[in-house]
Task: structure prediction
Amino acid sequence: MLRYSFELAVHGLRRFPKSTVLVVLTAALGLAACMTTLTLLHVLSADPLPGRSQHMYLAWVDTVLAKPSDSEDMALNGFKNKNYHRIKLADAQALLAARRAVRQTVVVDMAADEVSGDGKHTQSQQFILATTSDFIPMFGVSLRYGRDWTLAEDAARTPVAVIDTDLAQKLFGTANAVGRSVRLKNTLFRVVGVIQPFVTQPRFYTLSVGAYSGDGGENLYLPYTAALDAGLAPYGTDDCDASYKGSINTPIDPTRCASLGVWVQLDTPQQVSAYRSFLQNYAEQQTALAGFDKKPRSELIGVADWLKQNDVVPDSARLNVWLAGSFLLLCMVNVAGLLSARFLRRSGEVGIRRALGAPRHALFLQHVLESGLVCLVGGVFALPLTMLGLWILRQQNNGFSGLAQLDPAMFGALFALALATGALVGLLPAWRVARVDPGLCIKSE
Result:
């Protein structure tokens, strides 16, 4: 019966071609609008590091020696920065030295000119990630040549670096730049490893330089201790001690400003609980805070909560989904009306089939299948319209629209949504045509 109903549904598509085209176009427009916005939201809210981010946590303690009222304005000429849960250098070093996590790393963005060792090639004012030896294995960064630096090189403040293949090509003309040197200010950093370009979307570990990046992430990684020795300064800070007299034009002092992020890997709930207690105990030991009317504060935040806390997915993306969903609903109402008119035009034919013994459920199934097929054809036409909508989004310079790409999951979702739409809008018209009185229909014929 299913096969016969399907054949009748396919045959029904060829009848009344004008209404078929109208239904297809209406469904295509609604589906394309909805899928364009859904695809963007899907990309923005995706897991930045699948399989790893569930075990990553941002560790934070507040040890800034300033009263809360003072810290809101900071000491940087009144410029107020967002709290990205960064900490001071001494606290970062203390947390790392305790070795309470499976893996742990400091992350801090810096900016500098990147110059090849021979001075012939320069990349001006590039973002550099100053971190520790745990970063590459902890974040699953893929090494192509060489190695990452070691814990001993971290401790010795050795000027070594890992760069990505794009930077290697630009500075040295070859992807394998192991053994070459990169000059940052007046210090030569020896390249010990080359990685594939690495970027998470969003870049959750350093939100201060933008959650999303259309041109990739940092292209050079080096020990943060060696970076500080070279005179590089953190890109931003959350807060500074009251004694800090810096300005917006002076380099940030990480010893008196909260400018470093600490991420830890914790694999079990027990480890998470133990580390949270460790952080709070560490905060309670900071007796100097008492003179600034500050209570001991600490937080251990998972990636998902961290992104939610910082509103990384813009409200406009969610609003656009609701608007596009409303437009799709409007299109569905119109499609349902068109299908009702289309199906009821066959009342005489349906009445004859009912008189010959066709059951109502067979008629209902046939017309629901026809509705699903016509909306599936609408999904086919919605695909290029969706691609066009995503292309238009990518032309907008709003920091994240460049990510609007249709991946296999959303490709499948388009046709799943088309079939679901067809089934939903076809229920009422199919039910109405299946309920026609065969006697009246035959008499009217």
Remarks:
- The chain is about 45% helix and 15% strand.
- Confidence is low (pLDDT under 50) at residues 70-81.
